[in-house]
Write a structure and sequence with these properties.
Layout: H1 2-8, H2 13-17, H3 20-34, E1 38-40, E2 56-59, E3 63-66, H4 74-77, H5 84-87, H6 90-101, E4 107-113, H7 115-124, H8 132-140, H9 142-166, E5 170-174, H10 183-201, E6 207-210, H11 218-222, E7 228-230, H12 237-244, E8 249-253, H13 262-276, E9 282-286, H14 296-308
Parallel strand pairs: 1-4, 4-5, 5-6, 6-7, 8-9
Antiparallel strand pairs: 2-3
Helix pairs in contact: 1-3, 3-6, 6-9, 7-8, 7-9, 9-10, 13-14
C-alpha cells in the first residue's frame, strides 16, 4: 500500500516492527482504508527471537535472516528466555497506540509464531523449501529438539500473554511451515509443545490456529486446544468445518485470486459464502497472506462484497 511505504520510508524493517508509533500507524491505516471488521497488530513473527540471543535482520529479496542459527546441540543451551516485558516490551506501547485511535466497534487481533515454525527459522537461518536442516535436527537430536521447543513455547506464551494483557481481543497462532510434516511426526515432535502453549494462553480471548498445506493435520492441530482453526485455500471450508465440528472457522479465499479481475474475486468469494449459507461462526478471510502485487482496490472490493452479501 502506498500509505504503508510513505510511513515506512527508509526505516529498516526490524526497527520499523519495533517502533510503536509507526507500527500503530500502519495498523490503523490498513483497517481504515480496507474497511475490514478487525485490525491486525502490525508486527512480524520473528523479532521476539532477538532477545533470546538470535541476530536477526531483513534483506530485500531474501527476507529474514539469522546470522547465528542453531547448528548443533550445544547451540540450544545458549538460548535465553527473558520476560516478554523485558524483551519485547515495545509491543505493549504499540497496542496502546492502536487502541487509542481504533474505532470501538473494531476488534484488535494479536498474533505469534508457533514453536515448530520459529524453530525452523532459527535452525535453517532463513526461509526454506524442504526444511532439511530442521528435520535432520528434529529426528537426530530429539532431546535437544524438545529443549528448544520448550524454550520457544515458553517465550511465545509470555509474548501472547503480554498482548492479551495489553488489550488484544483475539490471538492467531501461525504455524506457517508445519504442513511440511507428516501427521505422525507432528503428533510426536510438535503437538505436545503446542498443547502446552494452548493450555497456557487459552480461556481469556479466542485463540485461532493456522498453518499452510495442513489438510492432513487439521484434527491433530485442533486437538492441541485452540478455539478454532483458520484454513488455507486448499480445502473445502464447509467440509472441513463439518468434519471438525467447531463453533467457528476462519478462511479461506486463495490470496492469489485477488490478483485476477474483480469478477474472479466476486465469483470465488461467492462460492465460499454459498457453501456455508450464512452459518454463524464463519470468519471470512484469505487462506494466507496478501502478496505484495495485490491491487488494493481488489481488496476493498472483496471487503465490500462480503459485507453486502452477509448479514
Amino acid at each position: 500500500m502506498p500509505e504503508y511505504h510513505k510511513v515506512k520510508g527508509d526505516t529498516p524493517s526490524l526497527a520499523f516492527f519495533k517502533n510503536p508509533e509507526l507500527a500503530a500507524r500502519v495498523t490503523l491505516d490498513a483497517q481504515a482504508i480496507l474497511g475490514v471488521d478487525a485490525a491486525i497488530m502490525f508486527a512480524d513473527l520473528l523479532p521476539m527471537l532477538e532477545p533470546m540471543g538470535f541476530e536477526l535482520d531483513y534483506f530485500a529479496g531474501t527476507g529474514p535472516v539469522f546470522a547465528n542459527p542453531i547448528c548443533d546441540v550445544k547451540d540450544v543451551d545458549r538460548i535465553h528466555v527473558v520476560p516478554a516485558d523485558e524483551g519485547v516490551g515495545y509491543i505493549r506501547q504499540t497496542i496502546a497506540n492502536i487502541l487509542q485511535d481504533l474505532p470501538k466497534d473494531i476488534a484488535l487481533i494479536g498474533f505469534a509464531g508457533a514453536p515448530f515454525t520459529l524453530a525452523s527459522y532459527v535452525i535453517e537461518g532463513k526461509s526454506s523449501r524442504d526444511f532439511e536442516k530442521t528435520k535432520r535436527f528434529m529426528y537426530g537430536h530429539s532431546s535437544a529438539w524438545n529443549r528448544l521447543l520448550q524454550k520457544l513455547s515458553t517465550a511465545i506464551g509470555d509474548y501472547v500473554e503480554l498482548q492479551v494483557e495489553s488489550g488484544v481481543q483475539a490471538v492467531q497462532i501461525f504455524d506457517s511451515w508445519v504442513g511440511t510434516l507428516s501427521c505422525a511426526d507432528y503428533e510426536h515432535y510438535v503437538a505436545p509443545h503446542v498443547k502446552r502453549l494452548m493450555g497456557r494462553i487459552s480461556g481469556r480471548v479466542p485463540v485461532i490456529y493456522f498453518a499452510v498445506g495442513n489438510s492432513h493435520l487439521l484434527h491433530a492441530m485442533q486437538a492441541t486446544g485452540p478455539d478454532f482453526m483458520a484454513l488455507d485455500w486448499r480445502v473445502s471450508l464447509k467440509d472441513a468445518w463439518d468434519d471438525l465440528g467447531t463453533v467457528a472457522i476462519q478462511g479461506n479465499l486463495d490470496p492469489i485470486s485477488l490478483c485476477a479481475d474483480q469478477e474472479t474475486v466476486r465469483t470465488k468469494a461467492q462460492g465460499i459464502l454459498d457453501s456455508v449459507a450464512g452459518r454463524s461462526g464463519h470468519i471470512f478471510n484469505l487462506g494466507h497472506g496478501i502478496v505484495p502485487q495485490t491491487p488494493v482496490d481488489h481488496v476493498r472490493y472483496l471487503v465490500d462484497f462480503v459485507h453486502e452479501h452477509t448479514s
